[in-house]
Predict the 3D structure of the following.
Amino acid sequence: MKRRIIIFAILSVLWCGFIFYLSAENSEESSERSGEVITTVCEIVIPDFSSYSESEKADIISDMSFSVRKAAHFTAYAILGALLFQVFCFVKDKRLRALFSVGGAFLYAVSDEIHQSFSPGRSCEFRDMMIDTGGALLAVLISLLFVYLKNKHKRQKPD
């Protein structure tokens, strides 16, 4: 149990470091990264995307940018929430374990948004904090479902 907690604590810290790294990018670097991701997705999903004019590509990328950026926030914090849920595995009360996991992700989201505001062209957005927390909450709820199903399966197994 102790080894598991240490492993997930290390993974959580590394993941927080990755989030911190992304938040330190200035707005131009961050937008460029988002644009690259969107372009790659479009090339996979839209069969003839490469034949579009540059202005058509730019319009599609621009239209998708907001959603992709917010989905990235949601996903990054869903991963953090799932990792923190494993860190707090020693907490027997599942509601308290969920609260610590989501609360920890929320506190990191707040600190991350404040940190991000020091990057040129970036700002501290309450909306992003809520999106981040929503990602963590969904991951924790899914984790709770897995714990419930695992325990239910254990109770049904004959000895």
Notes: The longest helix spans residues 54-87. The chain has five helices and no strands.
